[in-house]
Amino acid sequence: MSSAARGWFGRWRGSVYTQHQLDALLASIGRATTPDEKKAWLIELFVWIRGGAGLLEFDPAARAAKRAVRVRFLVQRLQRMPESAAELLKLLGAVLRDCDAVDLLAEGGLPHRDSLWGELKERLLRRWLPSGTASRSLLTLFGQLFPDREDAAWLAALDAETLAGLHALLSSAGEDGFGAWFAASCEDSLRFLIAQVRATGLATPVRLRIDRAFRDLPFLPLEMSLGRVLDACAAGDREELVLRLNLLRGRLDDCRSAVNDAYAHLDRYGVNTHVVFQLTCLKLQTERIEQLVELLVRGSGTAGSRWSW
After folding, report:
1. Are both 168 and 190 inside the same structural domain?
2. Which residue range forms the structural domain that includes residue 192?
């Protein structure tokens, strides 16, 4: 047998095996009945997408391309198997409802603790100790679904047709499906972040390093500004929403200016590691607030895909 024929046969055998793996996985959806079993099934699906050790022989770009092909194959398979698609959507919806999305949207990628050493300890524990499926944290599940930095590469390699198929699949859940869940999760995460920013910015170690009266601190009116944005978004009033978005952006810019004032105070009178850590968290949290509001507004379609500033 020629080398070309052997290569073709190997690729054919691999594709058949991959198809059988996916079919067996989809056939087992119904056996996942408890929340932990449903999360474990979802993790197994992503293990199948990554391809296990069989793809390690390729370079990173080739691995990303092959994993993107597997996602396209999954979408095509679900389009031809509506019953399996419906079961998968039901399982995914149950997992999302069982999990708390606030930690993922509000804290994912950001410090979780109020001190540098506490954050370092938590990151070391997350890195070296295994995490199970009993937690209600969506951030924990996200780390189990995407455990490697290379996962970003195959997500970026998904073509427009595959993304359109995924969008159609998720949209088939109906008006009360994933769109409503995501909007509610964004709102909850924004309220959580605003509370965090206010608590940190008004705390004594930070407040006394900002040369402003308590009532003039920009952290105080953030909750009211966010509430007005959410009200305008829910009402579908585009002009009012644009106005409220700009006011919120001004508040956030003022918060960052106050943080810079606190940094300047530290430069003059001496550095405090704990305060520096809190100021860094404040800046990151204000940026995350902007990102979540952008996602929320984009999803509502009220003010276009971008803020107006």
Report:
1. no
2. 179-300
Distance CA 76, CA 304 (A): 31
137: helix, strand or coil: strand
Q: Are residues 226 and 277 located together in one domain of the fold?
A: yes
The candidate with the shortest Cα–Cα distance to 276, out of 286, 263, 291, is 263
Q: Per the structure block, which two tokens stand in for 98? A: 């069982």
Tell me the per-residue pLDDT of 203-257, one tens digit each, with 9 for 90 and over: 999 999 999 999 999 999 999 999 999 999 888 888 999 999 999 999 999 999 9
For 34, left (φ over 0), alpha (ψ -120 to 50), or beta? beta
Domain count, the chain: 2
Contact between 31 and 23 (Cβ < 8 Å): no
Q: Which residues of 201-227 are buried (b: 16+ CB within 10 A; e: fewer)?
A: beeeebbebbeeeeeebbbeebeebbe
Residue 248 lies in a domain: yes
Do 48 and 21 contact (CB within 8 A), yes or no? yes
Q: At residue 9, does pLDDT exceed 50?
A: no
Looking at the fold, whether 196 and 152 belong to one and the same domain comes out as no
Same domain for 257 and 166: no
**Residue 278 tokens, joined:** 């809190």
Question: 10 Å Cβ neighbour count for 79?
Answer: 12
Please say which residue of 157, 173, 189 terminates a domain.
173
Check if the beta carbon of residue 207 is closer than 8 Å to that of residue 273: no
H helical segments located in 51-136: 60-80, 82-98, 102-107, 116-128
Q: CA 223: distance to chain centroid?
A: 23
